[in-house]
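name: query_chain
kind: protein
chains: 1
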Amino acid sequence: MAKRVLLIGGNFSPEPTGIGKYNGEMISWLANNGYDCTVITTYPYYPQWAVQPPYDRIKKRFKKEVAGNITIYRCPQYVPATPSGKKRILQDASFIASAFIKVLQLIGARKFDIVITVAPPFHLGLLAVLYKKLRGAAVVYHVQDLQIEAARDLAMIRSKRLISMMLKLEQLILRNADHVSSIADGMIRKISDKTSREVLLFPNWVDITKFHPLTDRAALKEGFGFSATDKIVLYSGAIGEKQGLESLLHAAATWQHHPEIKFLICGSGPYKVKLEQMAAQMQLKNTIFLPLQPAEQFNRFLNMADVHLVIQKSHASDLVMPSKLTTILAVGGIALITANAGTGLHELVRSHNIGILIDAENQEALQAGIGKALWENTADIARNARDYAAAHLSISAVMTRFKEQVA
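structure:
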């Protein structure tokens, strides 16, 4: 009989980016490889921070969806249009409350062999531990983002007492999980510092057949409405506080004397309007804001760019492994990455020569890095990036390893 897997996660398909994308692809892979999968999640809202159609009409009640051997229970939650520390706490609390109701309903209905929770939100692990205590399933606690440390270091939560309480709850989850995993060596080291147990490497992946290098970048640029001689500096992804994208606007201002250099900010998020207002105030004629690109043309869109920006604040160095980097590597893109020496991301990029590294929150370094990426020979980096993705980041290789370790 097929093993039964329950995923409890606040983000899931059809969210196009971030944790929701990876949760959806993970469950699809497991279902396609013989597992009977159930998901407790919420309605898709990220990265727009608003529940998306057609779910916006039913977002206040529970909904069941069935597709083959995947059953999805969508639970209502509060979604703040402009997230802050307090609002994020309320959002997470609203989801864990509704997810708790659904877990209780499922406890008596069927027996799962494996319960996977993906942090953030970190305290979903408590629901997995509860299920384990009552029904005996193995618990996999997977960390995509060190949420507590990020909230503390980015001053999203300033209460030391609250941070301490959250860390104690996390310790309870870590002690009771059968397997703990994370996406990068640097994050694994930080989790290992909290617990004496083994932490598995379960990296984010990329579809290396869907995302691959294309030739004739000039034609691609013209296809998206640019000149063949334009130089495209692209940021594509979530637009939030931890990215520090104000620095990109200042960099664009310094390059205005080169009209052929175009800065593209593509994506959604709560800070996009603020950035658009800043760009207007700075009278930036070389900065263009675009929505998330349709999936069917995203490979072409990424291949068009001369430089891909992977920007985050220094506090986030080993707290977040940028999910956008995997896709950039797959297309053989030249990634300009803010990562300080000593972090896992810095070590990975340096050791494999798969990007250009600059210090986080260093405006001069950012501007110099853009110039280096645009004008120097980066063919080796592009080739190394694609080779690394093919060798280490294909979904088949990553999920097969995960299955052998925990499932």
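note: The first strand starts at residue 4 and ends at 8.
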